[in-house]
Amino acid sequence: MNGLKIDENVIRYIIGNPINTDAVILDTNKIKTDRSYSLKYLDIDEDGNLNYYMSDNDIIYGLGENVRGLNKRGWIYESFCTDEYSHTPNKRSLYGAHNFFVVHGKENFGIFIDSPSKVIFDIGYTDHNKIKITCENQNYGLYIIEGNSLNDIVKEFRMLIGESYIPPKWALGYGQSRWGYGTETEAREVIRKFKENDIPLEMLYLDIDYMERFKDFTVDRTAFPSFEGLVDDCMDEGVKVIPIIDAGIKVEEGYPIYEEGVEGGYFCTDKDGDPFVTAVWPGKVHLPDFLNSRARKWFGEKYKILTDKGIEGFWNDMNEPALFYSDKGLESAFKRAEEIKKENIDVYSYFELKDNFNKLANSIDDYKSIYHNVDGELINHYDVHNLYGLNMTKATYEGLENIDENKRFLLFSRASSVGMHRYGGMWTGDSFSWWEHIELTMKMLPALNMCGFMFIGSDTGGFAGDTTSDLLIRWNQLSLFTPLYRNHTSRWSRSQEPYAFDEGTTKIIKNIIRFRYSLIPYLYSELMKCIKNNDLYFKPLTFEYEDEFSKEVEDQLILGNSLMIAPMYKQNSKGRYIYLPEKMLLCKLNHEGKLLFEVCNEGSKFFHCLLEETIFFVRKNRILPLVESENKVKDLSLKELNLIAFVDKKAEYTLYDDDGITKECKKNKFNLVKVVIEKISNKYELKIEKAENTALKKINVVIYDLEGRKETILREL
Ligand code: GLC
Question: Which Pfam families does this chain map to (predicted)?
Answer without folding.
Answer: DUF5110, Gal_mutarotas_2, Glyco_hydro_31_2nd, Glyco_hydro_31_3rd
